[in-house]
């Protein structure tokens, strides 16, 4: 019996020693739009600062197309291990899902919202409403809470650095962060708002 106990103990210790701290490899930050847009302009300094803070490379990966839904779908289907993140916007998370008849992801269940990082105000969109477009970091659904907390702390830290804020303000983006739960509430509220507006307008996209 004692021999079995020590055998199990050695297995547990071996498993713990073999576990690598996060992050142990480069992180991919997916931008669902081509280079040069607002989301891309936000993502690049954010990735650079995160790389320095985490001690691991954060690589921007532009996956544009279909008004942002291709990149968002890629992240939604990625493993929830913290190594694939989305620099998402309200466009493909709260607007497009209410406009397209079919979409390969449900914005309310496919992601783990981490935090917004910047608002781009006074954007006029169909059906004629002035809105604030947010940009924020999301991970695939079912991200372990420990990783979600670690990512939130890291992203908020770099997003609140004076140098990052200065870069955002220079391109007309208002820096902003929030608790993950608050970000989730904001996403769901905006989704419901757009869903109501689109239904009233009768607009749909195949």
Question: What would you note in describing this structure?
Answer:
- The chain has 206 residues and is α/β, with parallel strands linked by helices.
- It has a single domain (23-201), classed as Bordetella uptake gene, domain 1 (D-Maltodextrin-Binding Protein, domain 2).
- It contains 7 helices and 6 strands, in the order H-E-H-E-H-E-H-E-E-H-H-E-H.
- The protein has helices spanning 2-18, 38-54, 69-76, 90-99, 145-159, 162-170, 180-201; strands spanning 27-31, 58-62, 84-89, 111-125, 129-140, 174-175.
- It has a 6-stranded mixed β-sheet, sandwiched between helices.
- Helix 2 crosses helix 5 (145-159) and helix 4 packs parallel to helix 7.
- The longest helix is centred in the last third of the chain and has 22 residues, at 180-201.
- The protein is globular, with a radius of gyration of 19 Å.
- Residues 13-18 have low confidence and may be disordered.
Q: What is the makeup of the main sheet?
A: 6 strands, mixed
Number of domains: 1
The CATH topology turns out to be D-Maltodextrin-Binding Protein, domain 2
Q: What's the overall geometry?
A: globular
| Beta-strand content | 15-25%
- Kindly report the spatial arrangement of strands forming the biggest sheet: 2-1-3-5-4-6
Q: Assign the CATH architecture.
A: 3-Layer(aba) Sandwich
Q: Count of helices?
A: 7
What's the level 1 CATH class? Alpha Beta
The protein's oligomeric status is: single chain
What is the CATH superfamily classification? Bordetella uptake gene, domain 1
Helix content: 40-55%
Unreliable spans? 13-18
Structural Rg: 19 Å
What is the typical, i.e. mean, pLDDT?
A: 88
Give the termini distance in whole angstroms.
66 Å
The SSE order reads HEHEHEHEEHHEH
Structural class label: alpha/beta
Say how many strands there are.
Answer: 6
């Amino acid at each position: 019996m004692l021999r079995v106990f020590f055998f199990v103990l050695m297995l547990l210790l071996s498993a713990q020693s073999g576990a690598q701290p996060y992050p142990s490899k480069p992180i991919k930050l997916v931008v669902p739009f081509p280079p040069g847009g607002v989301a891309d302009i936000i993502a690049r300094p954010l990735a650079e600062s995160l790389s320095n803070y985490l001690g691991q490379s954060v690589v921007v990966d532009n996956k544009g197309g279909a008004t942002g839904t291709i990149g968002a779908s890629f992240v939604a289907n990625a493993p929830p291990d913290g190594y694939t993140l989305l620099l998402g916007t309200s466009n493909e998370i709260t607007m497009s899902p209410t406009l397209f008849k079919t979409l390969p992801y449900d914005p309310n269940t496919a992601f783990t919202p981490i935090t917004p990082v910047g608002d781009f105000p006074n954007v006029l969109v169909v059906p004629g409403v002035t809105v604030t477009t947010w940009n924020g970091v999301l991970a695939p659904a079912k991200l372990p809470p420990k990783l979600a907390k670690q990512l939130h702390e890291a992203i908020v830290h770099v997003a609140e650095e004076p140098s990052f804020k200065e870069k955002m303000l220079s391109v007309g983006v208002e820096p902003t962060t929030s608790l993950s739960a608050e970000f989730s509430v904001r996403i769901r509220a905006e989704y419901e708002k757009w869903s109501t507006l689109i239904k009233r307008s009768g607009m749909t996209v195949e």
